């Protein structure tokens, strides 16, 4: 189960809406070994694509060095789908490289206005196997 603050969910949704029609992506870091998402880190989709996301390699290297210096790890790896449901694609599954992370998908397929519904779902992806998990949103 992913336990996450409402403010972090709101930040992921806002990022997804802002980057639409391209996919948005980012990380929520937390203390190493805690499974507690705390620090929201929006990233640039280097692919600038509505159907694919890619972290810039230099940005990703900086992020991992920063997390290492702060004794953090990626607790949540998130991205958006702009035209499909919030479910990992074959590409998402193939590129999932953090077996301990929660992979959160935000779907903006129904629009990006504040009143438009979004779908937010969380998954574990380990060795190509996808399992959905519940999300508990806390204050």
Radius of gyration using CA atoms only: 14 Å
CATH architecture name: 3-Layer(aba) Sandwich
H/E element string? EHEEHEHEEEE
**Which strand order spans the largest sheet, edge to edge or round the barrel?**
3-2-4-5-6-7
The average pLDDT score comes to 97
The first-level CATH class name: Alpha Beta
Question: What is the number of helices?
Answer: 3
Percent of residues in β-strands: 35-45%
Structural class: alpha/beta
Write a concise synopsis of the structure shown:
This protein is α/β, with parallel strands linked by helices and 139 residues long.
Question: Can you offer a commentary on this structure?
Answer:
There is one protein chain. The chain is α/β, with parallel strands linked by helices and 139 residues long. It has helices spanning 6-19, 57-69, 90-95, and strands at residues 2-5, 25-31, 39-43, 72-81, 102-107, 119-126, 129-133, 135-138. It has a single domain, classed as Cytidine Deaminase, domain 2, CATH 3.40.140. The strands form 2 sheets. Strands 3-2-4-5-6-7 form a 6-stranded mixed β-sheet. Strands 1-8 form a two-stranded parallel ribbon. Strand 2 (25-31) and strand 3 form a beta hairpin.
